[in-house]
Amino acid sequence: MELLVFGHEGARVLVFPTSLGKFYEWEDRGMIETLRGPLERGWLQLFCVDSVDAESWYARDVHPSQFPIRHEQYEAYLLHEVLPFSLDRNPDPALVTTGTSFGAYHAVNLAFRNPEQVSRVVGLSGMYDIKRLIRYSDERVYFHDPSTYMVNEHDPGRLDALRRIEIVLATGEDDPNRGDNEHLSHVLWSKGIWHAFRIWDGWAHDWPWWRQMIGLYIGGHD
């Protein structure tokens, strides 16, 4: 697995690519340039990881029941290799997870499944109902479907941990994933989990909008 690191100190940011995307996607798409100021000032350090989507949620040569198994191997890699690697380079305790489109799914799912490790999550134009993609569900898929498992989350300890995360969900008014975002926002409020939910004008599901969003929600500027 390959990854890229940008910045020298500051909050650690775990960056997921879009569906089937690569670890260099944010650099190629101008997202790193958008965050140049915060990176140079030492406010952020980005860890841009690769995906295994082609072997998990987008695999076409295996039964959908196998998708979450491969994804769980990917999650173990993130938790037991990437995060320790990031801490070895940078002891800052703050961890942000973020991504756009399907990358937002990864960012939110990792944060909600492991709330004690994440300080902030920023999901841009995300799809959070994995059943929409794979048209299949079983017990294993359920535990990777934030739109569903959050509805049934009642554990006081986990809810307290989730309430400590700064959560930002942003999508476009005409984005096909808007309904997913509205549903997840409603579920979070029903659990007493404060968060920011922002709807941008227009479609807003492309890199020009995402560069604006990331500059605002992570970079701290318009």
Topology record:
Layout: E1 3-6, E2 11-16, H1 25-28, H2 31-34, H3 36-40, E3 44-49, H4 67-89, E4 95-100, H5 102-113, E5 120-124, H6 130-134, H7 139-142, H8 146-149, H9 156-163, E6 166-172, H10 178-190, E7 196-200, H11 207-217
Parallel strand pairs: 2-3, 2-4, 4-5, 5-6, 6-7
Antiparallel strand pairs: 1-3
What descriptive keywords fit this protein?
seven-stranded mixed sheet; 11 helices; alpha/beta
Provide a count of the helices: 11
Count of structural domains: 1
- Assign the CATH class: Alpha Beta
Please report the distance between the alpha carbons of the first and last residues. Answer: 34 Å
Q: What name does CATH use for the topology?
A: Rossmann fold
Kindly estimate the percentage of residues that lie in beta strands according to DSSP: 15-25%
- For the largest sheet, list the strands in their spatial order: 1-3-2-4-5-6-7
3D structure, described in words:
- This protein has 222 residues and is of the alpha/beta class.
- The chain has a single domain, classed as Alpha/Beta hydrolase fold, catalytic domain (Rossmann fold, 3-Layer(aba) Sandwich), CATH 3.40.50.1820.
- The chain is 42% helix and 18% strand.
- The chain has helices at 25-28, 31-34, 36-40, 67-89, 102-113, 130-134, 139-142, 146-149, 156-163, 178-190, 207-217, and strands spanning 3-6, 11-16, 44-49, 95-100, 120-124, 166-172, 196-200.
- The chain starts with a strand and ends in a 5-residue tail after the last helix.
- The model has no long low-confidence stretch (mean pLDDT 97).
